[in-house]
Amino acid sequence: MIKLGITGGIGSGKTIVCEVFKCLGIPVFNSDLIARRIVDQNACVINEIKSQFGDDVYTNVGLDRKKLSQIVFQNKSALERLNSIVHPAVFDEFQVWLAENKNAPFIIKEAAIMFESGAYKEMDKIATVFAPEKIRLNRVVKRDHIPVDQINKRIENQITEQEKINRSDFVIVNDDEQMVLPQVIKIFNELSMI
Prior knowledge:
β3 and β4 (62-63) form a beta hairpin. The strands form 2 sheets. Strands 2-5-1-6-7 form a 5-stranded parallel β-sheet, with helices on both faces. The chain has a two-stranded antiparallel sheet with strand order 3-4. The protein has 10 helices and 7 strands. Helices cover 56% and strands 14% of the residues. The longest helix is centred in the middle third of the chain and has 25 residues, at 76-100. The chain is globular, with a radius of gyration of 17 Å. The model has no long low-confidence stretch (mean pLDDT 93).
């Protein structure tokens, strides 16, 4: 089974691309959504996060994402510590999910930090979803209602878009001018024939 990794910077449109693949019958593992669930429900992960970042990053309703973001996006080593806690748990869930979807023509793993986390090593092909930075910033401000400076801090912790493109087998341009659907169908057809 071919494993396609889909990555791209914040606001690039990875989710839209993955939705198109889902409509074509391809299973999609969304690493970011799984990670969000893990940090809220996995007792071992919760205890390790509290141990590393303090009990006050959790409230009686769950993880205080804003507080934790302020810690990790200001400090690269703190972000690396958080990733070292969460990524192994995401990897374990991916292995279970992979076995459940073994009969699919191919599968997709969506991850914002595919290269940074090392997840690209377990993929057969990588597709980067690209959008110019100005468009990405506008999308994220509109979607998440967070200031541009906070978005820029997140971008600084990822490899450059050009590096992602250089390391990818496919590039899907989502710049509000080129149509995404034909680009996705072209990749779908190519991978379905392998």
